[in-house]
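for the writeup, i need someone to sanity check this before i put it in the appendix. the sequnce is what the collaborator sent (i think, or maybe the updated version? ugh). structure was predicted straight from it, no edits. if anything looks off just tell me and ill rerun, i have time this weekend
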Amino acid sequence: MNDEGVDLKRRRFLTASTSVVGAVGAGAATLMMINYMTISEKDKAQGAPIEVDISKLPPGKLLVVEWRNKPVWIMKRTPDVIKAIEAVDDDKLRDPNSEVAEQQPDYAKNKYRSKTKDMMVVIGLCTHLGCSPREEQAGGDLGADWPGGYLCACHGSTFDYAGRVYKHVPAPTNLVVPNHRFTDNNAKVIIGGVVKKEKKGAAS
């Protein structure tokens, strides 16, 4: 090719500019891909187990943590709360013995719906329409014979302190108990993941 009359400086400038633009474009594409991969990993992580430090959680205090975009309630039950669970007449409950299998792991198929009766780990969403219930202590607006528990004010569903649903309310099932296990002498709880099956009715 005859380069006579061609501005070599301009050619070099255009060649360099094209290379820079191409590099920037490739870099942008790389950033988009990295960002996409990161988002994908974050989405996966939402279903991963979480570890919660409960070493300083006072008895009777409800701790709420997020897992899989759902509120998980954790409580160290007081003796009064345990007595309130034991005071509930099974005939008033829809599933007093936790027979709906998908609502809890095998080790939570007991009156307290937990591994040990002094600990509660449940998903704090009403099983009717997914609203968040609130605590209603004994007596009060629910009457003198109400032993305490949880009320979903949206449509009136009620649950005892173990998350067991009462009869004649919109919620069809007990609150969900997620897979969980305690570590470090019960100083931490790991929510989610695969938990080794334990003997039914492990609470004591």
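The longest helix spans residues 8-45. The chain has two helices and nine strands.
thx in advance!!
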